[in-house]
Structure to design on (383 residues):
């Protein structure tokens, strides 16, 4: 038979995050690998979606999303960050933040264009670039603090460089970019005429007085910035697939057209539920997220320390990279599997976040779980 898969299939692999979730299910373990965020969904968000279903909002929406949601996103950007966004022309609602990034790549990048990623990176950023035939290029951040310099960026830029990705707060490291670091990237973007893609999905998960800086607010950056975010994590609705992209109108229309082609639209009644949550949940809800998740972070970090799997304590997001080098195994996957077999707790091998073997001593633990599940996992880890 001459039928076979396309050449493209080699570019897209099953993520190690998903693989470890499967392994965890097979072992009947506690899943601290995938960021499913199985905490409670706010009541107002659930009721909003149900009311929309009952009210007949169940058909296709505008390719850029329902105006109710786009307006609510614009209002939130103004309320939290003082940034003006035109809901009519500068916002595209997509199938999660991953969908928004995919459509942005299709709209703005040509095959062979290079995009700089900070390492450790989120694997779906890499795979999305590769799937759209762009080329990821890596800047290794250094411990302690996951830092980088302008010289690090200048060392990898070429005439083919078209963009740079900032994920803050970051998955998997929990790094929160500082004002100075943002300004370094802004200057670099101007000097090299680059798009700046920002993944801001964890913007409300911040600890120890860190704050989220919106890159588009920096001087001259709004027209260059493709801001990706959503409510999957904030409202614990990862399965709803509601994300969005904020960009200059020159880019947003074509991003929207690709969104229409690939996804048609995000689920209509779920868009309404999210819009209702954005309108009715006050600022205390968002502040409380950081308080609640800081307690979860500290609980897991304490257990890892007691097990001598020393954590790099995150400043944001809800993941911890920890040193698992003392566990048996020749690489991070073997060590992660040993931990799963020994304790029944699943994590993600560090190799999933590096393009070479630099992650072999690391593993990522997710703490977006109800406290009683985390307490059980911590007891198992710390034994």
């Amino acid at each position: 038979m001459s039928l076979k898969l396309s050449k493209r299939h080699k570019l897209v692999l099953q993520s190690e995050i998903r693989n470890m979730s499967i392994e965890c299910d097979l072992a009947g373990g506690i899943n601290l690998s995938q960021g499913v965020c199985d905490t409670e969904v706010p009541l107002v968000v659930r009721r909003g979606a149900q009311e929309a279903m009952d009210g007949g909002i169940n058909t296709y929406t505008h390719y850029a999303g329902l105006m109710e949601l786009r307006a609510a996103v614009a209002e939130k950007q103004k309320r939290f960050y003082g940034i003006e966004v035109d809901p009519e022309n500068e916002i595209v609602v997509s199938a999660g933040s991953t969908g928004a990034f995919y459509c942005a790549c299709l709209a703005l990048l040509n095959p062979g264009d290079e995009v700089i990623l900070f390492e450790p990176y989120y694997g779906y950023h890499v795979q999305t670039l590769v799937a759209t035939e762009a080329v990821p290029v890596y800047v290794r951040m250094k411990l302690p603090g996951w830092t980088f310099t302008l010289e690090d960026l200048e060392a990898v830029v070429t005439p083919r460089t078209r963009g740079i990705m900032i994920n803050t707060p970051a998955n998997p490291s929990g790094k929160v970019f500082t004002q100075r670091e943002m300004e370094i990237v802004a200057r670099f973007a101007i000097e090299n005429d680059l798009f700046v893609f920002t993944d801001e999905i964890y913007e409300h998960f911040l600890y120890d007085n860190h704050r989220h800086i919106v890159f588009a607010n920096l001087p001259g950056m709004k027209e260059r910035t493709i801001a990706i975010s959503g409510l999957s994590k904030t409202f614990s609705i990862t399965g709803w697939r509601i994300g969005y992209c904020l960009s200059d109108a020159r880019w947003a229309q074509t991003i929207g057209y690709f969104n229409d082609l690939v996804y048609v639209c995000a689920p209509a009644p779920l868009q309404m539920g999210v819009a209702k949550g954005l309108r009715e949940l006050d600022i205390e809800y968002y502040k409380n997220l950081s308080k609640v998740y800081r307690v979860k972070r500290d609980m897991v970090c304490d257990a890892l320390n007691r097990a001598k799997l020393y954590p790099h304590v995150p400043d944001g997001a809800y993941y911890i990279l920890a040193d698992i080098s003392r566990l048996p195994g020749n690489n991070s996957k073997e060590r992660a599997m040993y931990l799963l077999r020994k304790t029944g707790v699943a994590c993600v091998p560090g190799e999933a976040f590096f393009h070479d073997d630099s992650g072999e001593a690391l593993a990522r633990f997710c703490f977006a779980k109800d406290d009683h599940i985390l307490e059980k996992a911590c007891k198992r880890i710390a034994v």
About this structure: The chain has two domains: 7-41+284-382, 43-280. DSSP finds twelve helices and 13 strands in the chain. Residues 7-41+284-382 form a domain with the Aspartate Aminotransferase, domain 1 fold (CATH 3.90.1150.10).
